[in-house]
Amino acid sequence: MIRPGCAAYTLVVCALMLALAPMLQAQDSPNIVFLLADDLGFTDIAPYGSEVHTPALSTLAQQGVRFTNYHTAANCAPARAMLLTGVNNHLAGVPNIPEMMAPEQLQHAHYQGVLGDNVVTIATLLENAGYHTYMAGKWHLGSAPGKLPSRRGFERTVALMDSGADNWEQRPYLPIYDQANWFADGERFDLPDDFYSSRFLIDKTIEFIDGNLVDGRPFFAYVPFQAVHIPVQAPQEYIDRYMGVYDQGWDHLRKTRLERAVALGVLPREVAMQRMPTTADWDALETERRRYEAKRMAVYAGMIEAMDANIGRLMEYLGAQGQLDNTIFVFTSDNGAEGSGAQDPDSATTRLLASNLGYRTDYETLGLQGSYNSINPGFTSAAVSPLSFYKFYAGEGGLRVPLIIAGAPETLSGAQSAAFAWATDVAATILSLAGVEAPVGRFAGRPVLPITGKDLSPLLRGEVARVYAEDESVGYELTGHAALFQGDFKLVRNLPPLGDGEWRLFNIVDDPGEVSDLKQQMPDRFQQMLDAYAQFELDNQVLPLPADYNQTRQLLINMLRDRYGAAVLVVLLTVVLLLPFVVYLRGRRV
Is residue 76 annotated as part of the catalytic site, yes or no? Predict the structure, then answer.
């Protein structure tokens, strides 16, 4: 017979064992490192055809699986929402970045541009399963106290709240921000004096991992880099390696990258390319201008290599700690390359923006501390070669990016997959590789949306050729730019200024450059996919655009309102509206 005291002791032991069960189970689970580049183009790294030296990422590609038909959102926050939750970004509360949301949209609960409480992050699920969870890098999913990464499953954090910031110091890159908003473990944080973004983020990741290695529990480390988001900046030693490399211009680079991608098997042998209207004639530029543009791209390449070098440093650390063989790496980008950099770096608008923020744009210091730099849209077209369009658009250049997964058990080595994959699949795959179940219906006492992404593990093991059935659809929308993927086909609409607003149909396996519109040849498929897209909009609560919405204009309006208040905004808009009439009346008087 058990005495009452023994019964109480037994209950305590049982309760303790139940509490410790996730940690004990996690002891045999793999570490997971999720590396996220920012605005990286499809052929910007060596495993996909780049001339940029990326030995760490090349090693991961050689040891794992390289995906050549992986797609994401066309801008950052929506992609991050899907990557971290496995739920469509509209349902997760992030149809667009908050900086570009119109007042009419903000009236709707799921159009706030910040991560909703109706979804649970993979960090939360992994922490609940006994993992240590760390984040170092750009968050951009909400800066209110309840939206910080420290409240969304991350045990240790150092995080940038904004859409971007300087890479050398704590300075905003757009006038929309009063300061660069960094937080560490939920509190405001001041960057160190020797800050450079890629180096600092890996330093903090190593610090976080090192602080808990002794307990034997696995870790999930999320490292969303600032590279290669505007402002494009890099240490001089990395810039120097690419001086002269881009002197032949963007058309030459776009062609050579395509040739390398074909040689690597990343793309089919015959790929047609469109020439974007934002791509200027390189040969028509003056000598000094070509020299300046080539250096802009050299800084961009240097920034990519600097990111890769720090990834390599993390891999070396894990190797020295005996953790490398038990670590799974996932590398991708939030969206395609940024194409809204200044066409003319010497224009009054560019110089005004830079000087108002205290930046320089001179050739000698380009990319260094205090320099404001981006790549020309012509080189953006080369960064996504041979794809069309880029960030903010639904063309392949905005949506198709690298994805490498390495280190998972039974993963094929040095393989590649041409299977279609989508951003929500990353969350589902990470949970599967960790052996963690996704919640069904409820989590922690509240209802949550189910993960809709597919587990890519069967592709990693070579067990299947695709995870999406040929009749399954995946839809996407951003400010009216839209796409629907089904089998090898893509229905797409790109709005002005680069697009014409017409729906088109492409076979993106045979024609990744989106040159041959098939809607006249395949009218039944075209209509069927139009119907499927309409259903996607209903299922995911996609709202119609406000009248005359323009994302650049909305960004400007939001910036003026946030910085100067509604009254000043009304005055400025009134001046803009009355100016044509003033000019007209003055002309009549003359």
Answer: yes
* DSSP codes of every residue in 376-431: -HHHHHHHTTT----TTSSSHHHHB--EEEE--TTPPSSEEE-S-EETHHHHHHHH
Contact 464, 458 (CB under 8 A): yes
The residue ranges of every structural domain in the chain are 1-29, 31-324+353-460, 473-539, 552-590
- Prediction pTM value: 0.92
140 is catalytic: yes
CA angle 507-508-509, nearest 5°? 95
Phi, psi dihedral angles at 256 (to 5 degrees): -70, -35
Run of H or E residues at 67: strand 65-67
Tens digit of each residue's pLDDT (9 = 90 or more) over 125-138: 999 999 999 999 99
Asked if 441 and 451 touch (Cβ cutoff 8 Å), the reply is no
How sure is the predictor about 584, in pLDDT bands with cuts at 50, 70 and 90?
very low
User: Could you report the per-residue pLDDT of 260-281, keeping only the tens digit for each?
Assistant: 999 999 999 999 999 999 999 9
Give me the residue label for tokens 């050398």: 168
Query: How far is residue 294's CA from residue 298's CA, in Å, rounded to a whole number?
Result: 6
Q: Of the residues 53, 90, 132, 140, which is catalytic?
A: 140
Are 110 and 477 in contact by the 8 Å Cβ rule? The answer is no
For the domain covering 473-539, report its CATH number. 3.30.1120.10
Q: Residues with Cβ < 8 Å from 443, sequence gap 6 or more?
A: 120, 124, 125
Burial class (CB in 10 A: 0-12, 13-18, 19+), 103: exposed
AA identity, residue 114 = V
Q: Is residue 42 very low, low, confident or very high in pLDDT (cuts 50, 70, 90)?
A: very high
Determine the pLDDT at residue 233: 98
Contacts of 145 (CB under 8 A, 6+ apart): 151, 186
Model confidence band, residue 356 (pLDDT cutoffs 50, 70, 90):
confident
Of the chain, the end-to-end C-alpha distance in Å amounts to 111
Task: State the virtual CA torsion across 204, 205, 211, 217 in degrees, nearest 10.
Answer: 160
Please pick, among 53, 71, 76, 229, the residue that the annotation labels catalytic: 76
CA–CA gap between residue 332 and residue 404 (Å, rounded): 7
d(CA 523, CA 508): 17
pLDDT number for residue 341: 83
- E strands, 129-234, in order: 132-138, 156-160, 182-184, 187-188, 219-224
Q: What is the mean pLDDT of residues 343-362?
A: 84
Which CATH class, in words, describes the domain spanning 31-324+353-460? alpha beta
On whether the CB atoms of residues 280 and 293 are closer than 8 A, the answer is: no
